[in-house]
Amino acid sequence: MREVIIASDEESGRIHRETCHSAEEDCRLAGGDILGSVMGLSQEVERLHIVATWPDVIRLAAWKTEPKMGDLLVLLKSVGLRADELLPFANADTGDLFPWLYYGKRFDTLRRLCRIAKKNAEDHVRKKDVRVYCHLISEDVHRIVASSL
Fold first, then answer.
1. How far is CA 78 from CA 13, 75, 112, 123, 124, in A?
2. pLDDT tens profile 12-53
3. CA 4 – CA 26 distance, rounded (Å)
């Protein structure tokens, strides 16, 4: 079985290696193009771990290279948040929502976003029977904080 890890950056790859004891040679850096990295996987891959920062998880979940706040608000409504909860963020940046979700202990919401990102990756990878896992890392606490597992 061929396993590949796509990481947003070096730190994400390191966190995954330490947490899951994966081999360094299995890790590929997305290089700023997480969507292209997923779509460009070779046919021999059977299992894919995506270890991503908040901006990259949003890119995967929205399947857009530059998702806007409206895209994120729609995603968050689709995973169960109410419009009145999101109203204070209407004019905010997409990065402003992660601390609110994480420190507010909305881990169920973060997991649901990881599952949407996982599903989108499965839909867009060339080999349709590849098993995908999506892990969200926090750069503040240096660990995986949510996963599609």
1. 29, 5, 9, 18, 20
2. 988 888 888 877 778 888 888 999 999 888 767 888 999 999
3. 5
pTM score: 0.91
Structure tokens at 25: 């040679």
Burial class (CB in 10 A: 0-12, 13-18, 19+), 26: middle
Q: What is the pLDDT of residues 49-69, one digit of tens each?
A: 999 999 999 999 999 999 999
CA torsion through residues 93, 95, 97, 100, sign: negative
* Three-class DSSP category at 103: helix
What is the length of the chain? Answer: 149
SS3 content of the chain, % helix, strand, coil (to 5): 50, 20, 30
Full strand arrangement of the beta sheet holding 47-52: 27-29, 3-7, 47-52, 131-138, 143-147
d(CA 114, CA 46): 19
- Give strand pairing partners of 27: 5
Question: In sequence order, what are the beta bridge partners of 3?
Answer: 47
CA neighbor of 147 nearest in space, from 119, 107, 120: 107
